[in-house]
Structure formats: structure tokens, C-alpha cells
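Need a sequence for this fold. Nothing fancy.
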């Protein structure tokens, strides 16, 4: 088991693209705070600490199955396209102030308080059954269309 804290393993010589290996189980608090990352590849079932990727330049991100995202983990990035997998736990403010345009939330996802707050380009949300959403999860956005099936709390 590795815990990434101050010495990241980068995928390229610029240090802007990072692939976290499957053996890593935890990324600690502010491990990549203001690091300048533009690309990130995560393994399944990893725990991402509070503000771990706060204020970077990531534009596209896939969150694999079973990932636990801490408070403000991806706040103040440039994320336009976010792909979520099943059974992801999204902490409070996790994706606040990004550029997400559309969200498809799969089954078993838990969305924390103000998790997607202030994504001014967010216009469409599709929720799946068995999703838990906390207060103001989608506040201060420009949502024009939302699909809510039975089983959403």
C-alpha cells in the first residue's frame, strides 16, 4: 500500500499528467494542492482526501467505481466533462466551481452538501435510482433539465 503525500509518481516529464496506480489506496489532504495537473487517471476504490486536487487545471475526469471523494477534493479545477461510476461517495463541495456541463449520476452514488455548487455551465442532470443527494448539491447552477427517477432521496 502506498499513500501519496508529497512525492507523486508522474506519467510524463512535465509533471502535469498523473496516473495513480492500483496499489495506492489513499491520497492525503492537499497532496496535489495547486499542483498544475491537467490530466488525472484514478484507480477504483481509492479514498481521496480533503482538498487533494484543489485548484488544478483538470478538464476531463473519470471517477471509477467505489471511489470516496473528500470535501473540496476537486474544487476550483476546470472540469468540463465528469464521468461518474457506481457506488461513488462525493464529499461536500467536492466539485464546486468547475465548468461541468452535464451530469449523469449512476446508481449508488451519494452526493454531499453543495458538491456541485457554482458550476455555471451545468444545464442538464440525469439521476439514476438509489442516489442520495444532500442539501444544495446543485445550487447556483443554470440547470434547465433534470431527470429524477423513483428511488432518489
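Here you go.
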Amino acid at each position: 500500500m502506498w499513500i501519496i503525500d508529497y512525492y507523486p509518481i508522474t506519467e510524463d516529464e512535465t509533471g502535469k499528467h498523473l496516473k495513480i496506480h492500483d496499489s495506492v489506496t489513499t491520497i492525503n489532504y492537499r497532496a496535489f494542492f495547486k499542483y498544475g495537473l491537467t490530466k488525472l487517471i484514478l484507480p477504483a476504490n481509492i479514498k481521496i482526501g480533503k482538498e487533494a486536487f484543489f485548484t488544478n487545471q483538470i478538464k476531463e475526469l473519470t471517477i471509477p467505481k467505489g471511489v470516496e471523494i473528500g470535501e473540496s477534493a476537486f474544487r476550483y479545477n476546470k472540469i468540463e466533462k465528469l464521468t461518474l461510476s457506481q457506488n461513488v461517495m462525493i464529499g461536500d463541495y467536492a466539485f464546486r466551481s468547475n465548468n461541468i456541463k452535464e451530469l449523469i449520476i449512476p446508481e449508488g452514488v451519494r452526493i454531499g452538501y453543495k458538491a456541485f455548487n457554482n458550476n455555471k455551465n451545468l444545464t442538464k442532470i440525469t439521476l439514476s435510482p438509489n442516489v442520495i443527494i444532500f442539501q444544495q448539491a446543485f445550487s447556483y447552477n443554470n440547470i434547465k433539465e433534470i431527470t429524477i427517477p423513483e428511488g432518489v432521496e
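For context: The chain is about 0% helix and 25% strand.
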